[in-house]
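Escalation from tier 1.

The customer reports that the assembly of two entities below gives different structure tokens on two consecutive runs. Tier 1 could not reproduce it. I'm attaching the input and our single run for tier 2 to review.
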Amino acid sequence: MAKTDKDILDDAKLDTELEAFFEAGCAASPVPSDALMAAIVEDAQTHQPTSQTVAAPAQRRSFWREFLSQIGGWPSVAGMATATIAGVWIGFADPVQLETWSGGVVLSGNYDGAETIYSTEDLAPSYFGTSLIIEEEG
Amino acid sequence: MALDAYAAGSDEALLILYGNGDPSAAQILTARLAPRVLGYASRLLGGDRAEAEDVTQEAMLRLWKQAPNWRQGEAKVTTWLYKVVSNLCTDRLRKRRSVDIDAIEEPADEAPSVVDGMMQRDRAEALQDALMQLPERQRIAVSLRHLEGASNPEIADVLEISVEAVESLTARGKRALAAALAGRREELGYGEDR
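Tier 1 run:
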């Protein structure tokens, strides 16, 4: 709400009336005792952060330690080692069972023949979209 | 850094220096801020010096603890302190009200003050009595504006209200003060000043 001229006059009159009291009040401000000042400074020293806690320098890590933390630590290394050994074993041992599982694709290298074993619909039933199914039912 | 250079620094700059582990900043800040905090606390607490000293130490302690997390440019250090002191004093006044009010002795001000002459002292006491008759928020607004020299936006920050609300609060406070002091003006030699 904007002040009217009367409000401004009233404020000025009030300030004049109270001025001497405010001046006396300001002059009567208590002076802190030496004991209080000493206690405050002591508190300040007790709770002052050391420069170490303010800015702890970042520790430099070696390349291998950093690499290890990036790939997920020692469990990831174990997983990768297992996968590597399995790959080498498959390469050398030429296991027949694996050939059976893959339908003669993996070890024979006969990728053209794969189409006769698996049709596209077997591997990706949604490949042709739903329109064909609707047509069939249709 | 020489102490003279510190003395020229702002409160905020000194607080950041303190937060960074500088040993001298706290002394300058204490010398600069403790008297203001004590004066303000004393006014809000009706002149009870012992309690005002406790509040001053507590408010300054909170400032030291706040230093490492101080957000630059967000608030003035004095405004932050006035807010803390206002809250601490409000808590103490509430506790005091819940205790038997007659059991509290009239505070004896033993500390040296710079009041010049009996009349000035009587006026200051009359003002203090009148301030204590005001509602709490009016007392805070009037004290900050007219005794601590704070600006209206600063008071608005302390009380968490708009500047317009501060103006209204201060005006009502001053009217109430004038009414409370009206009967004592002649007695306190107010007429002689004019």
